[in-house]
């Protein structure tokens, strides 16, 4: 993806240079983004039985960009270390 593009964190528009930085092809946020890890057997069972839900924090990054004149949307996964 090449600029111009729009970046959203949990559906909230982000501003380059303020909310995130671009280094090469990587978006860098000033803080770690939360990912909901794998759920244990007991957590799955409690959700299946309707006893509890999953309320863990899981932040989503969405990038909207143009490709060949078409508006495209990419949902990105966060990584601990940039590649």
Protein model, in words:
The protein has 83 residues and is mainly β. It has one domain (5-76). The chain contains 1 helix and 6 strands; from the N terminus they run E-E-E-E-H-E-E. It has one helix at residues 41-48; strands spanning 5-9, 12-14, 21-23, 26-28, 61-67, 70-76. The strands form 2 sheets. It has a 4-stranded antiparallel beta sheet, with no helix packed on it. Strands 3-4 form a two-stranded antiparallel sheet. The model has no long low-confidence stretch (mean pLDDT 79).
Strand order of the largest sheet: 2-1-5-6
Mean pLDDT: 79
Please give the number of β-strands: 6
H-E string: EEEEHEE
Tell me the span between the first and last alpha carbons: 16 Å
Strand content: 25-35%
Radius of gyration based on Cα positions: 16 Å
Derived from helix and strand composition plus strand pairing, the structural class reads: mainly beta
Quick take:
With 83 residues, this protein is mainly beta. 10% of the residues lie in helices and 34% in strands. The relative contact order is 0.26.
Task: Describe the SSE topology.
Layout: E1 5-9, E2 12-14, E3 21-23, E4 26-28, H1 41-48, E5 61-67, E6 70-76
Antiparallel strand pairs: 1-2, 1-5, 3-4, 5-6
Keywords summarizing the entry:
83 residues, mainly beta, 4-stranded antiparallel sheet, 1 helix, 10% helix, 34% strand
């Amino acid at each position: 993806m090449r600029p111009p593009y729009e970046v959203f964190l949990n559906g909230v528009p982000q501003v380059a240079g303020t909310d995130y930085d671009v280094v090469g092809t990587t978006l860098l946020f000033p803080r770690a983004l939360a990912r909901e890890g794998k759920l244990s057997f007991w957590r799955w069972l409690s959700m299946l039985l309707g006893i509890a839900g999953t309320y863990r924090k899981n932040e989503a990054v969405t990038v909207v960009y143009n490709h060949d004149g078409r508006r495209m949307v990419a949902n990105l996964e966060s990584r601990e270390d940039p590649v």
